[in-house]
Design goal:
The complex is a heterodimer of chains A (285) and B (284). Chain A is mostly helical and 285 residues long. Chain A is 78% helix and 0% strand. Chain A has 12 helices and no strands. Chain A starts with a helix and ends in a 6-residue tail after the last helix. In chain B, helix 8 crosses helix 9. In chain B, strand 1 and strand 2 form a beta hairpin. With 284 residues, chain B is α/β, with parallel strands linked by helices. Chain B is globular and about 50 Å long. The chains are: A mainly alpha (285), B alpha/beta (284). At the A-B interface, helix 8, helix 9 and helix 12 of A face strand 6 and helix 4 of B.
Chain lengths: 285, 284
């Protein structure tokens, strides 16, 4: 029974992959990338447009990125490249985990309890528009370690996005579910566990996707100011050392790692909310 | 009298609702909107009371007061002689003896149908999860729902969802079922099947039913009595005892007596609908 179910799932995944390959979407995606890189190549390397001429072109960047002996010291063959990625990844994961662990419960509580909302929400709303960068000086004063300020700056916007979306998630739950639960004799804590938490999940996961994006975003800001490794540090030091292709390598790597991390969260969300995808008819089973 | 018949007889005595002089004013008591105005109504135990009136006349306000979702401005509601709400107790506590089936349905979409059905007894701690599952499977089979036990509500038709919701209510052995136009969104054929299924359910489990509708045919087919309400503010205009014999099925709809009852009440209902329409015109 169990194995046949897994078998069916594998078959379904293969079927979807085939359907996807037959549909125009993968080719449009490739075309989109081709257009972007083509524009970059033409404007920098072929036409040498005024403001683009000083920039590294795609062939230069690609050659540097894939070279066993990179001119400026960073390519997929150098161990430093992976140390930078892992350092950034570790900071983002710590900050994201903290933002989720604190932000989701806090958001659910202020969404659910009127009193808690009155205390906390205005404070959150006042702190939220302050850009992460503005926190850098205080963060450096607050934490003596070199990692502390970077993680704190990465954590903040992620935390706000998570808390706010979790709160909206509670508000999105139809009043009738609460009424039905009270009719059926659920107590306060049971309502929280069985109605508030699952009912908010779609919004929570939207929040988490925004949150991980913001974490990468502000991580780079933090790494440019403090820290010894990381992709933001690579970009900033490459600028001061005039190794322009390395800047672009750092940027593209950030894009890829950020894309993959969002996709992973989307996947976890879809697995946890099978009811949601089924209701929306996204799931064939 | 056999033991089981006696048991049914005793249980039939549960679930009498008496509404006395219910008043509900939204907003300021002096100048607010009067939704219910000195409305009195009695629902005999184990019978189906159909509450008919134009849309927005305040029937749902009455239902919400019985369920305990809203308070009354004044008046009293009794369940089996016990005061649910009244002076000094403006709002009843919602509880498993009075279960609401909502207009748009309120099955939890994140739980499978089976987990929805066992929710009540498991939350109350009256049954273990496995006991509840066993009972749920039996009740769902009786309602023809065996094939969708492990599906999510979003995967089944709306008619099926309504049946699951009624089974979810029955799992708690309620005294009263409060139904707020549950079949409004269904097509005529599904509706007729649902009506027969609801009657079957009521024959099996004697339970008092308070059923809001604005469909007169539905009211006469299902009801032991039909309470026709006035348009805003809501008051009991006329109570009609439906003397159609039980058990009823779709043939009942074509009998002479059914037509007579329809004719008898149509005039009264139409009059109220007309009033509500004119009121709406003026407000609009």
């Amino acid at each position: 029974m169990q194995t046949s179910r897994y078998g069916m799932q594998v078959e379904l995944a293969l079927y979807r992959l085939k359907a996807w390959l037959k549909s125009p979407s993968p080719y449009l995606m490739l075309l989109g990338f081709a257009l972007m890189i083509g524009f970059w190549w033409l404007s920098v390397e072929v036409w040498k447009l005024p403001r683009f001429a000083g920039m590294p072109g795609p062939t230069v960047v690609l050659r540097e990125w894939l070279s066993p002996n990179p001119e400026f010291g960073l390519s997929i063959y150098t161990p430093e490249y992976y140390i930078h990625i892992l350092t950034s990844l570790q900071r983002v994961l710590i900050a994201f985990a903290l933002a989720t662990l604190i932000g989701v419960p806090l958001g659910l509580i202020i969404g659910w309890s009127q009193t808690a909302r009155e205390y906390i929400f205005p404070v959150l709303e006042m702190l939220r528009p302050i850009p992460a960068l503005a926190w850098v000086p205080l963060a450096i004063l607050m934490f003596s370690s070199s990692e502390g300020p970077v993680i704190f700056v990465t954590f903040l916007p992620a935390f706000f996005a998570t808390a706010l979306n979790s709160m909206l998630g509670v508000h999105s739950i139809d009043e009738n579910y609460f009424r039905a639960a009270s009719c059926l004799g659920a107590k306060r804590w049971q309502v929280f566990r069985h109605i508030v938490v699952p009912g908010s999940l779609p919004y929570i996961f939207t929040g988490l996707q925004i949150s991980i994006g913001l974490a990468w975003f502000s991580l780079v800001a933090g790494e440019m100011i403090s820290g010894e490794y990381g992709l933001g540090y690579v970009i900033y030091t490459s600028y001061t050392m005039v190794s322009y292709p390395t800047i672009v390598i750092g940027m593209i790597t950030l894009g890829i790692v950020g894309y993959v991390s969002s996709a992973l969260i989307r996947l976890v969300g879809m697995m946890l909310m099978r009811w949601h995808s089924r209701e929306l008819g996204l799931d064939g089973l | 009298m056999t033991a089981t018949a006696r048991k049914v007889e005793q249980r039939a005595l549960r679930g009498a609702i008496r509404i006395e002089d219910a008043v509900k004013i939204y907003g300021d008591p002096e100048s607010g909107v009067v939704a219910v105005d000195h409305c009195s109504l009695e629902c005999p135990p184990g019978e189906i009371t159909m509450v008919v009136g134009p849309s927005g006349c305040g029937k749902t306000t009455l239902l919400n007061a019985i369920a305990g979702f809203h308070s009354l401005t004044s008046g009293k509601i009794y369940l089996d002689g016990e005061l649910l709400c009244g002076p000094g107790r403006p709002k009843a506590d919602p509880g498993p003896e009075r279960i609401v089936v909502f207009q748009n349905g309120a099955l939890f979409p994140w739980k499978t149908n089976l987990d929805n059905v066992i929710f009540g007894p498991v939350m109350q701690g009256t049954m273990s999860a496995s006991e509840a599952r066993d009972k749920a499977r039996v009740l769902m089979a009786e309602a023809g729902l065996s094939s969708i036990v492990h599906e999510y509500p979003g995967q089944v038709s709306s008619g099926m969802r309504r049946r699951v919701e009624i089974v979810r209510a029955l799992m708690n052995d309620p005294k009263v079922l409060l139904l707020d136009e549950p079949y409004r969104a269904l097509d005529a054929l599904t509706k007729s099947v649902m009506h027969e299924s609801l009657l079957q359910t009521c024959y099996r489990n004697r339970v008092t039913v308070f059923f809001i509708t604005h469909d007169l045919e539905e009211a006469i087919f299902l009801g032991d009595q039909v309470a026709i309400m006035t348009s805003r503010p809501c008051r009991t205009k006329k109570i009609l005892k439906v003397d159609l014999p039980h058990p009823r099925d779709h043939h009942t709809r074509t009998t002479k007596r059914f037509r007579e009852l329809m004719d008898e009440t149509m005039e009264t209902v139409h009059e109220e609908a007309q009033k509500a329409f004119e009121l709406g015109e003026r407000e609009g």
